[in-house]
Amino acid sequence: MLQFTKQQKPAGASRQQLGRRVAPCRPVKPSAPVRTPVVRAEPEDDQSFGKSIDAKGAGSSFTSPGWLTQLNLLWGGKSNVPVANAQPDDIKELLGGALFKALFKWMQESGPVYLLPTGPVSSFLVISDPAAAKHVLRGTDNPTRNVYEKGLVAEVATFLFGKGFAIAGGENWRVRRKAVGPSLHRSYLEAMVNRVFGPSALFAADKLRESARSGAPVNMEAIFSQLTLDIIGKSVFNYDFNSLTTDSPLIQAVYTALKETEQRATDLLPIWKYPALAWFVPRQRKAYEAVELIRQTTNDLIRKCKEMVDEEEVRAASAAVESGQEYMNEADPSILRFSPPPCRDALPCRNTHALPLPPFPSPPQEYMNEADPSILRFLIAAREEVDSTQLRDDLLSMLVAGHETTGSALTWTLYLLVQNPDKMAKAVAEVDAVLGDRLTPTMADYGQLRYVMRCVNESMRLYPHPPVLLRRAMVEDELPGGFKVGVGQDVMISVYNIHHSPAVWEDAEAFIPERFGPLDGPVPNEQNTDFKYIPFSGGPRKCVGDQFALMEAVVALTVLIKQFDFELVQGHKIGMTTGATIHTTNGLYMTLKERKPAVAPAALAAA
Ligand code: HEM
User: Fold this and answer.
1) Which residues line ligand 1 (CB under 6 A)?
2) How far is CA 384 from the centre of its chain?
3) How far are the Cα atoms of 309, 325, 326, 329, 432 from residue 341, in angstroms, in the given order?
4) What is the ipTM score, two decimals?
5) CA-based R_g, the chain, Å
6) Disordered: where is this region (predicted)?
7) How wide is the angle at C-alpha 596 spanned by C-alphas 595 and 598, nearest 5°?
8) Residue 469 Cα: closest atom of ligand 1
9) If you measure from the C-alpha of residue 536 to the centroid of ligand 1, how many angstroms do you get, rounded to a whole number?
10) How much is the pTM?
């Protein structure tokens, strides 16, 4: 049986209520500012988006400021940054719903850089401008200009990430990022495409076939969340959550911990800051227990993997020493040149080394194990000087950072494609042309699936995950445009605003995969768009798994649209809410039909 989340089942209403059709494609002219947003591909209408940016810009709409704004204005009189006109209703929206919608409204009223009051003397500096975003992102953990740190995001996520490099800063982050980054090398990604992304997506398709045949609606958001959990589990730990077919306390623990991280970011009463008190709050206790279970499981996986690597190395070293072959050099087979391997703790050393050993020489691929290409196996084989807690927290960082993000990217890409049948038809035509009667792409096919890639790129423009990036100023700074930033100032880069700003993108609200230029051109990123497109952030703290995520999303989408036609359930209101990613509020319910003629029976049987 497929797993459904406890979200609301679709209700009966007309198809039109689900979302409006988008405007036809037009080539992008990023330099030409367009003041008024055009038709949006939104799951629900929202009147607040209809406003155009106030021509007078910052500070012109203070006719009835809320009390927080009043106090901030008094206190912040010396700041040259405009203060957003935050009304109590807006704050309610911030806490309960889609934070980025309110941030967009204030951008329209106050301009691309404004202060959002969060308390009598506290505020977020909200940035919706590519140049200012570039300045801040490049000024984080940059050895030559180190101005910003992760701030609030590190505070709310420490209970889960611990010392993990996703939230660490300074030297700790630098050392661990350098150690973990190489694990995502090209051979690893290729192994993932063939062994994990493709087969896992095929498995999901197999499950979906039951629903396609019965005609039962499927919550595709839940399916994508389960699929991406299974994929990241195998890729990071070689651990099969099997969440597409089973439910387990561990899977529940992962979801509980993620939810808690999201809730902490918007808690009015941050009881979690006081662990002694937090223990008496059921939600907090549940979260701690969940984290405990995740950590125990990860520790067990690390221990087992270490034992296996040690055993293999001992076996390999003994065999090599016995044969004497391994260390002979082809060009110079002399005894002088004969170079035994370095002694390491795990190896029973039968050689006496009079000379200092050469540095550990291998390029990253060398640590990849054919049988277990996971990141865990790679890091253990690389024998980095790292304690088990650090290794555990780094791996959990990868698991958490790589799960919901990719699941949400897939959810909204499918939603947008179904809303835009002409784009879906183009994507399906490409998939059929590239795959023929095969059901899953190879690495070579991946390079050919350029329109599918553009659909994923464009979906991540309209629905970036996370929609905001948080930073805190460690020293005084000045943004491009002359805005002053005080020490300790919390900064929120609204990726959503930059991606939706009519001053940055033409037809900003429309889903136009073609906007990024010719299909044989480069995949858009922060560099080639000058920080107008930053779904993976930018600067030193840019996502380490961007290539992994794009491959995973393209492969999964390809496998699914090769086999099924999707249709939104009539009248089902999807809704949007903010967490670490943009979620639906009610699930993405769709009905599926098998695309039988396009799939050769032999290929199906082989799969
Ligand atoms: C569509 C999928 C993904 C999106 C949209 C995404 C987005 C991001 C963003 C925006 C950041 C930077 C946050 C900041 O600047 O504060 C980030 C960091 C990170 N991501 Fe991803 N990510 C995705 C998938 C993945 C995957 C699959 C992995 C692991 C395999 C991963 C691992 C990480 C890690 C470890 C960091 C922290 C890097 C550091 O601080 O040095 N992400 N991600």
Assistant:
1) 165-166, 177, 397-398, 401-402, 405-406, 409, 465, 469, 535-537, 541, 543-545, 548-549
2) 26
3) 16, 12, 9, 13, 50
4) 0.99
5) 26
6) 1-57
7) 75
8) 16
9) 6
10) 0.81
Q: Is the dihedral of CA 110, 114, 115, 118 positive or negative?
A: positive
Minimum-distance ligand 1 atom for the alpha carbon of 534: 10
Report the amino acid identity of residue 477: D
Cβ–Cβ contacts within 10 Å for residue 484, how many? 14
Q: Map residue 7 onto helix, strand or coil.
A: coil
Q: What is the DSSP string of 398-462?
A: HHHHHHHHHHHHHHHHHHHHHH-HHHHHHHHHHHHHHHTT-SS--HHHHHH-HHHHHHHHHHHHH
Nearest CA to ligand 1 atom 40: 166
- The reported pLDDT for the residue numbered 65 is 41
Tokens representing 482? Answer: 């002359």
Distance 313 CA to ligand 1 centre (A): 33
Domain boundaries, the chain: 1-56+156-352+360-457+542-607
Is residue 409 within 8 A of residue 582, CB to CB? The reply is no
Domain 1-56+156-352+360-457+542-607 has CATH 3.40.50.300: no
CA distances to 183, 240, 275, 571 from 19, rounded to whole Å, are 41, 37, 44, 10
pLDDT reported for residue 600: 52
Beta bridge partners of 577: 583
Q: What is the pLDDT of residue 100?
A: 82
Give the whole-angstrom CA distance, residue 283 versus residue 10.
29
- List residues forming the annotated binding site: 543
- Smallest CA-to-CA distance from 200 within 237, 226, 172 is with 226
Question: β-strands 468-473, 490-494: how paired?
Answer: antiparallel
Tokens of 423: 């784009």
Cα angle 206-211-216, degrees, rounded to a multiple of 5: 165
Which residue, by CA, sits nearest to atom 21 of ligand 1? 543
Instruction: Identify the pLDDT of residue 91.
Output: 61
pLDDT of residue 89: 65
pLDDT at position 350: 36
10-residue averages of pLDDT along the chain (607 residues) = 35 30 32 31 37 27 44 57 75 64 90 85 90 98 95 88 92 92 88 93 95 96 95 92 88 87 72 76 88 92 88 75 60 53 39 34 57 86 82 92 95 98 98 95 96 98 95 96 92 96 97 96 97 98 96 98 96 86 93 76 52
Note the pLDDT of residue 562.
Answer: 97
pLDDT in the model for residue 271: 75
- CA 198 / ligand 1 centre spacing (Å): 21
Mutational test site, ligand 1, from 405, 498, 551, 552, max ligand atoms within 8 Å of CB: 405
Q: Are 52 and 96 in contact (CB under 8 A)?
A: no
Choice from 165, 167, 457, 543 to test ligand 1 binding pocket (greatest atom count within 8 A of CB): 543
Residues 6 or more apart in contact with residue 210 via CB below 8 angstroms: 2
Token digits for 379?
Answer: 């890091």
pLDDT at 59: 30
